[in-house]
Amino acid sequence: MQSRQDFMTFAATVLTLYPEMFPGPLRHSLAGRALEERRWSIEAVQIRDFATDKHRSVDDTPAGGGAGMVLKVDVLAAAIDHARLIQPDCPVLAMTPRGKPLSQARVRELAAGPGVSVLCGRFEGFDERIFEGRDVEEVCIGDIVLSGGEPAAIMLLDACIRLLPGVMGAASSGAEESFEDGLLEYPHFTRPVEWEGRTIPEVLRSGDHAKIAAWRKQQAEDDTRSRRPDLWERHSGARDQSASGARQKRDRDQGQ
Ligand code: SAH
After folding, report:
1. Is 23 part of a structural domain of the chain?
2. Coil, helix or strand for 220?
3. Which residues are paired to 198 by β-bridges?
């Protein structure tokens, strides 16, 4: 008898005009091993299969004129309905520069769920009415423009897969990583101790774990402040808020 898995398989459905791009890079390394171990699964669905005319067309010229082609809303709806049928409990995410910036917090939520359906755009993108007619979350992976949603889908899936139980191993829960507490991670070093006259910071060789932890915290804060003022502002805002929240609670508890 086959033994039952002690974990849920995270199921990914990708709606794309290029199903042969999947699993692509996700066949390798951590994600590839996890795929073999059935910690996640992937089905790439050809959007063109939902075209209804005899030319199987998926796109048409933009209303109002202009360059490029637009993905047809009826074809997209049929593809999304298919994804909902095979994965009723999974959110559908459309990759688009007009979407909400993807965050590590959202990735964590997705990775904790049963899976995700990902809609990949091409050409000029989607007929906007799809976002009114179907429950779809618009997601942007950065303030850049790709030629298609497929690399964005691969990024999203990679970020989810590494968080699945057993994928990164016991060595790391990812809890110390960049963005997890609103900060960048501290910098890393490894042997050789000296390279081209540059040495590994003394404190990291001291063996004093408390001092090392304090140094890393300071570095994470300094680097976030200088490299990502946007993150720093949010982090220090949240910190001030929780400090004032704690003060208020203390004052309340003391009947003030
Ligand atoms: N005309 C669109 C860009 C289309 S790029 C615009 O200016 O907003 C073609 C497809 O690539 C998009 O439909 C989307 O699926 C994908 N794509 C491009 N950049 C992306 C990004 N930053 N995040 C997520 N998907 C992106």
Report:
1. yes
2. helix
3. 195
Kindly report the pTM of this predicted structure: 0.93
| C-alpha to C-alpha distance for 76 and 100, rounded to whole angstroms | 20
Cα 145 to middle of ligand 1, angstroms = 5
Compute the radius of gyration of the chain from its Cα atoms: 23
- The per-residue pLDDT for range 91-140, each reduced to its tens digit, is 999 999 999 999 999 999 999 999 999 999 999 999 999 999 999 999 99
Domain span holding position 43: 4-161
Residues 131 and 251 placed together within one structural domain of the fold: no
Atom of ligand 1 nearest to the CA of 94: 15
Ligand 1 binding site (Cβ under 6 Å of any ligand atom)? 95-98, 120-122, 124-125, 140-142, 144-146, 148-149, 152
Please tell me whether residue 46 adopts helix, strand or coil conformation. strand
Q: Is 180 left (phi over 0), alpha (psi -120 to 50) or beta?
A: alpha
- Exposure b/e, 58-91, CB count within 10 A at least 16 = b: bbeeeeeeeeeebbbbbbbbebbebbbeebeebb
Cα(2) to centroid(ligand 1), Å: 43
β-bridge mates for residue 11, sequence order = 41, 115
Number of domains in the chain: 2
Confidence band (pLDDT; 50, 70, 90) for 242?
A: confident
Residue 149 CA to ligand 1 center (angstroms) comes to 6
